[in-house]
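Reading a protein record of the kind used here takes little practice once its layout is understood. An example of such a record is reproduced below.
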Amino acid sequence: MKTMQIYAFDMNCVGHINHGLWTHPRDRSVHYTDLDYWTEFAATAERGKLDGIFLADIVGVYDVYKGSPAPVIGAAAQIPVNDPLIPISAMAYVTKHLGFGVTVNTTYEPPFLLARRMSTLDHLTKGRIGWNIVTGYLDSAARSMGFDRLPDHDARYDAAEEYLEIVYKLWEGSWDDDAVLRDKAGGVYADPSKVRTFRHDGKYYRMEGMHLSEPSPQRTPLLFQAGASARGQDFAARHAECVFLAGPTPRVVRPIVDALRAKAAEFGRGADALKILSLITVVVGRTERQAQEKLEDYRRHASVEASLAHYSASVGIDFSKYGLDDVIDQNSTNANQSALAAITKQAAKPVTKREIIDQMVLGSRMKPIVGAPEQIADHLQTWIEEGDIDGFNLARTVAPESLRDFVDLVVPVLQERGLFKADYAEGPLRRKLFGGGNGRLPAAHPAARFRR
């Protein structure tokens, strides 16, 4: 039985996935603007030997539902939202092993600057940084960045392919491994003959320059990706090392997992080149009864309205225009293709708005796993075995107690069963997750061809 990987899934905002729970009297997420909030969060995650913290992000607002951002502003549904990269240095300072996956959008961030920012974080974290590659799905973000609308779905991925070629050239090829001398006696910090400029003249990007940062421990950060559409799967199988999926059951997720691993093998990377993570929400108590009581307590604070507003923007459909028993039948939008497919063409039967609401137990469309620690461990083990996944992104409910509960109650059971590590491996994040090597991308990865 393989040991699972677990990440604490969060966002630099008040309300992330399970909307409305910030109103719970024990929730502290309104303190997301305080550095102590993030350092305590990181310390708890490392105490539980979690592999990392995965920080989501958006650059836009959810304004599809009722044609207005008002519902999400009032409910604090991912707005206000701050930059996810800023707290990482502080969280890294109070931890030694915890990894950090951070979302940055290729559609709006210049590749030259992103490359330097990630190298800086890789240096400061001593090789514990990862990049979640996204291309965006909100028209509101496009308008905020000066575009009339979001580029078409597949065109965004085409541009991202080119984007990655640029950052690979900068991270992997601009500086030789032995370029940095630090020769104080000779007054030479780096050998100019071993630092080179790259030129790129493509369909979407033009640039000419050398990487401004000296080589960091991993060079290229650990690469995360969360696209489950056909185009997204192709992109993930070619580039990603960790893939983030969301699905209600292992049976639903397994075909996507199999397809991703097969595609990675086709690209010459091998089926084991991917670590695949599933989104989960957990409500755990010392007993099943305590867990159910906690669920009911949380549920009184959940916001279905905010969840509908979030979901409307995700799939590009205004759910306020549907009656409770109307079937959701729109087949194509320019938003999140996999989220839309889950309730339309991939659904076993027509899905109504009422059925979507029934899934929103804690203010999100993902039903929580509820029970005593042993029951939670059973459920996670089933996911690993039947879904052939490698681990989980653990969404918060009431912060910080939901993470503390998981660390104190569930992690020890997983460790006793040999399903979760007893301690961290040494070295950079990539080495911790994949074992062996020096923390650099393997030779089979497409970035390796840009090395000197």
